[in-house]
Amino acid sequence: SGLLGIQERTLVAVKPDGVQRRLVGEIIHRFEQRGFQLIGMKLVQAPKEVLSEHYHDLQEKPFYPALINYMSSGPIVAMVWEGHNVVRMSRAMVGDTNPAEARPGTIRGDLCAHISRNAIHASDSFEVAKKEISLWFSDQELIEWQSCIHSNLYNM
Ligand code: IDP
Ligand code: MG
Fold this sequence. Notes:
One of its GO terms (cellular component) is mitochondrial intermembrane space. The chain is built from eight helices and four strands, in the order βααβααβααβαα. It is an alpha+beta fold. The chain has a four-stranded antiparallel β-sheet. Residues 58, 63, 67, 97, 115-116, 118, 121, 124 line the site of inosine-5'-diphosphate.
């Protein structure tokens, strides 16, 4: 439908510590309650090549090797969520990178204790979201489906 054309998508991932700590349901619940629509989801043991592409901007950082080990340490739940302004709104829901700075009410501000175990990833811009979605998902893994709550969420 024409309405799908004005929707935006983002990549969200529950990191290995979030999966281990049984936070997957809580995190999905928050995105569902906000009204975003789930378009793709899978449990993955992330390949090193995917992680090095995903975090290529951070290669020179001192914490980079530890970051790749952390992200390889267990399964990740990768998701694509759709909705108006979903990139900006999901970053606000996730909160500051450092849980010590993250506001209460955010996912990191409510559920996390340390910057090196911050439970969740969300794309930080529309352009980055496009790249990350195509890195983590094939086209066939993304499902377009009709929302029955659209007019109540958006008044259009
Ligand atoms: P973001 O996840 O909020 O977008 P980025 O700056 O893109 O934050 O960093 C990516 C990830 O790298 C963070 O979520 C965190 O897991 C890790 N990271 C960032 N800065 C540090 C640090 O100073 N120490 C340890 N890990 C870090
Ligand atoms: Mg980032």
